[in-house]
Write a structure and sequence with these properties.
This protein has seven helices and twelve strands. By secondary structure, the protein is α+β, with helices and mostly antiparallel strands. The chain is elongated.
């Protein structure tokens, strides 16, 4: 079967979002037939991003019988997870043609790795394909040395806004009414993650970060901030207002999970 036909079939079936798979195919090396089988036994298509050793897509042959409940161990030869890394399933969805889609998040020493995610697509328990973006050679401290409140103050100083949404009583009141939650606030809710410098895995520079949403009122702006939880460095900023399209992970060509589906903040 021609590669174009394979990709078209998967896009139509909804196995892999178009925005995710098309950049991957343009920026990655594709192996099919015997070459794919030599990389992972029984596969008919393997896609490996430029500069990476971990596939961003594996399509299994019809005769394979790799069980979804044996993931990720069954794919360890190509996933190459270290003893400090693991994949945790956080969501499962089913479609109307009998497929289940298991979403996994990458962790390093039990800390979430920003942008590290993959999806296992299975039918009747058999893995049909796997696609996603796993970070390589992750290494970072996992114990913060500054508090999340200090990180927020550093982000505010860096941004330099005159006023923030949580400092505007009218905006806070409006949010609480809209949410029907008397505790709702725009004040940042913080998550501890490991992230690459500038969210660019190619730089191979990993940081333990506080990740949070800073919503400024004057002047208006909204950013994801990644502040180093050890030394307070601003590791990365991501504009949530002026970015018209999802950011693509430049290491893999896969749309980064943090931007295609922004992390929800329960407080805003």
């Amino acid at each position: 079967m021609m590669l174009k036909t394979i990709v078209s079939r998967f896009l139509v079936a909804g196995f892999i979002p178009a925005l995710a798979i098309l950049p991957s195919f343009m920026l990655a090396q594709r192996y099919s037939g015997a070459q794919a089988d030599s990389i992972f036994k029984g596969s008919t298509l393997v896609v490996i991003p430029q500069g990476s050793k971990i596939p961003s897509m594996i399509l299994m042959g019809e005769q394979t019988d790799y069980k979804a409940n044996a993931f990720p161990g069954v794919l360890q030869p190509v996933l190459k997870l270290s003893e400090n890394e693991e994949l945790k399933e956080y969501k499962t969805s089913k479609d109307n043609i009998g497929f289940a889609h298991h979403h996994y998040q990458q962790y390093f020493k039990n800390v979430k790795v920003e942008g590290g995610e993959c999806i296992v697509h299975e039918k009747l328990g058999r893995i049909i394909s796997v696609n996603g973006s796993l970070m390589e050679n992750v290494e970072a401290p996992v114990k913060p040395k500054i508090t999340h409140k200090e990180a927020i103050q550093l982000a505010m100083k860096h941004l330099g806004a005159k006023r923030y949404k949580w400092e505007n009583p009218a905006e806070e009141s409006r949010l609480r009414k809209m949410r029907k939650d008397s505790a709702a606030t725009y004040y940042p809710s913080v998550e501890l993650v490991i992230a690459a410098k500038d969210l660019d895995p190619k730089k191979k520079e990993w940081h333990l970060c506080y990740k949070f949403d800073v919503y400024a009122d004057q002047p208006m702006s909204r950013h994801w901030f990644f502040v180093d939880a050890v030394n307070g460095e601003i590791v990365a900023m991501e504009d949530r207002i002026n970015t018209a399209h999802p950011k693509t992970n430049i290491n893999t060509g896969i749309v980064a999970p943090s931007t295609k589906e922004p992390m929800s903040n329960p407080k805003n």
